[in-house]
Write a structure and sequence with these properties.
Pfam families: BPD_transp_2. The protein is mainly α. It is 73% helix and 0% strand. The protein has a domain of 223 residues.
Length: 330
């Protein structure tokens, strides 16, 4: 029997393929690929601002990746991360803006962050209920929920909550603001929340009976049901947990950075989270380096945009994911 390849082989080969393609495109643009890669690293990590940008983006992508990875372990494909992040950000922003000003800071932050997680979880649970009760494929339901949530938040913002002559809600109260890691940086202490959520996801999936049963449902739902495992209930739990992780993105985007909800806040983050989870092969601990790589490529591509088109690195991300999917079939 042929031994399975080590877990690192597939992502390493995919990243190498992405680098080779981007190198060809960079040469086609008349630049030296090695020089451009070196410039990306120096312009990104050579300053506290660039480092902060990568940490900020990585924090968001870790949680967005977990939103996909956790349900994926139960053989569920959550495409609703974008809508769940929107719901969480909107709910957290409104909650944090209208909390009493005398609320203690730790409690205020916890209330706003949990409100965001609850909103995201409710969206994920809705898709789970549609699947368990009516047999609706979660891919279709989560995509449709993305449109519904986007429309609802846009309507509420435009017609009821936006400040006059703006496209954002009132600022959150000071007690709900998560401090920045350093001055003039978007990176904030919600990075600790992202790391803690990753560890919690790993412990839940791989160190508890509950996680074992959830993974069993993903491997063979019929066999799991014969063993007495409630597959429907695990579907609901998995989708709700994934939605909660997406909703927690509000801690980074709203409480730690923008301090309000505004139009275009998510900018497709939920879909990038799918790529992060696929590269990590839906393993919570591998989400961390995967999110860091995508966060670096996003900001690094912008940092060298004056030399080569940033779209090259967007294509590189797509090639990496396609290669991961192809290699998983072998």
């Amino acid at each position: 029997m042929q031994k399975p390849l080590p877990r690192i082989v597939t992502p390493a080969a995919a990243i190498t393929g992405g680098l080779l393609l981007s190198a060809l495109l960079i040469m086609a643009a008349g630049r030296n690929p090695l020089a451009m890669y070196a410039k990306m690293v120096s312009m990104t990590f050579g300053s506290t601002y660039g480092t902060g940008q990568v940490i900020f983006r990585t924090t968001t992508l870790v949680l967005a990746g977990l939103a996909v990875a956790i349900p994926f372990r139960a053989k569920l494909f959550n495409i609703g991360g974008e809508g769940q992040i929107l719901a969480g950000a909107f709910t957290a922003a409104v909650t944090a803006a209208f909390l009493p000003s005398w609320t203690p800071a730790p409690a205020a932050i916890a209330i706003a962050a949990l409100a965001g997680a609850a909103a995201g979880s409710a969206m994920g649970l809705s898709a789970g209920l549609l699947k368990v009760r009516y047999g609706v494929n979660e891919v279709i339901s989560t995509i449709m929920l993305n449109f519904i949530i986007r429309g609802f938040t846009s309507y509420m913002l435009t017609n009821h909550l936006a400040l006059p002559s703006t496209a954002h809600t009132p600022d959150i109260i000071d007690a709900t603001i998560i401090p920045a890691l350093w001055q003039h940086s978007p990176a904030n202490y919600s990075v600790l929340l992202a790391g803690g959520t990753t560890l919690a996801g790993y412990f839940l999936l791989f160190r508890t009976r509950f996680g074992f049963e959830m993974r069993a449902c993903g491997l063979n739902a019929e066999a799991a049901a014969h063993a007495g495992i409630d597959t429907g209930m695990h579907t609901l739990y998995a989708m709700a947990a994934g939605g909660a992780a997406a909703g927690l993105v509000a801690a980074n985007l709203v409480l730690g950075y923008r301090h309000c909800f505004e139009a275009g806040l998510t900018a497709g983050i939920g879909f990038t989270g799918i790529a992060v989870a696929l590269l990590a092969k839906a393993h919570p601990l591998w989400i961390l380096p995967s999110a860091l790589l995508f966060g670096f490529m996003e900001y690094g591509g912008l940092s060298v945009n004056a030399y080569v088109p940033k779209e090259i690195f967007m294509m590189m991300q797509a090639v990496i994911i396609i290669m991961v999917l192809v290699m998983q079939k072998k």
